[in-house]
Amino acid sequence: MSTLERLQAALAAEHAAVHVLAVVAAQAASAAPAAGQGGAFTLAAARHAVHLGRRDLLVDQLRAREAEPVAAAAAYELPELGTTTLALAAGALVEERCLAVYADLVAASSGRLRAWSVEQLQESAVAVLAWDGLPRPFPGADEL
Amino acid sequence: MLVATGGAALLVGTGCDVPGPDRSADSLPDPGRSLLDEVGAGAAAAAARLTATTAAHPGLAPALEGLRTTQAEHLRVLAATLGEDPPAPLATPGPAVPRRSQAALRVLLRAERTRLASVLDGAREVDDGRVARLLACLGAGLAQQLALAEGSP
Fold first, then answer.
1. Per-residue pLDDT reduced to its tens digit, B49-78
2. Euclidean distance between CA atoms B129 and A111, whole angstroms
3. Interchain contact, B11 vs A101, CB within 8 Å
4. Which of A10, A47, A110, B82 is 20 to 30 A from A62 (CA-CA)?
């Protein structure tokens, strides 16, 4: 796949991440006092901001290449939510999906875009742990 | 799986062409091959350092078990990618280890941070995108272990 296609795939992943994390944050906020989801809300809100920033940067990258950025979907099939455990699992899933697209963007890019992609890969890998996800030897490369 | 409803599936598997254990070593030319050799040598030295550290301070072993298994997996994949056998444990004495366990842990983690920076430099600079991807993912795995060992995920 070309750099443009990988950029579009990363943008699609970030659209999904922004959507899912907004829902996770909203649910955790409404349940926080009773269900002990204050930590999940804080984490979801912080990660939502990170993914918003990435999304905007990817849009800029695509427009700089005179490509039309892929639009967000009208709706997304959400993972099950409602408890702290499920919220954490949803957040970890979001980060895991981003790992894969940034690993592929690393392979399909060079220079500053490559460096940025490497950074996002590292950042999401550590974020997986914040969501109580498990470490892996090669995050983003499931075939290894 | 996160998918867009009514649209194309998002965030699904990649099928990216990468070097790996199932790839012929002949398909990996220099300078990518030399870089992976260098990263493998660094990983072997790091494994020896960890072994020496936990031998001197057995109480550190549980906290470093994840790092140990990750190093071993990195060595296995690097060797397979290069078409080689995984390196045998070094026969020479390991590096000197500080007498106090917390100092030993700090020295070990500092060396691993330096190694991580070197791996990521390689990922950023190597021409071969497949090698870059392998190194970036290896670095991400090491970053996870360091975050856990440092208590900062």
1. 999 999 999 999 999 999 999 999 999 999
2. 11
3. yes
4. A47
Query: How does residue A27 score in pLDDT terms, banded at 50, 70 and 90?
Result: confident
The structural domains of chain B, ordered by start, are: 28-86+95-150 (1.20.1260)
pLDDT digits (tens, 9 = 90+) for B88-118: 766 666 678 999 999 999 999 999 999 999 9
What does the pLDDT read at residue A83?
86
Contact A138 B120 (CB under 8 A): no
Give pTM, 2 decimals: 0.88
CB pairs under 8 A between A and B: 154
Sequence ranges of the domains in chain A: 3-130
Q: Residues 3..22 of A with a Cβ closer than 8 Å to B: which?
A: 12-13, 15-16, 20
Q: How many CB atoms lie under 10 A from the CB of residue B15?
A: 9
- Type of residue found at B19: P
| CATH number, span A3-130 | 1.20.1260.10
**Alpha carbon of residue B55 to chain centroid:** 21
User: Residue A142 has what DSSP assignment?
Assistant: T
Residue A41: both structure tokens together:
């809300």
CB–CB of A73 and B144 under 8 A?
A: no
CB contact under 8 A, A100 and B14: yes
Rounded distance between C-alpha atoms, residue B101 and residue A100, angstroms: 37
| A50/B contact by beta carbon, under 8 A | no
* A55-64, A65-74, B15-24, B85-94: least confident range: B15-24
Q: Is the ipTM of this complex over 0.90?
A: yes
Lookup result for tokens 């001197």: B56
Separation of alpha carbons B132 and B150, rounded Å: 26
Would you say residue A34 has pLDDT above 70?
A: no
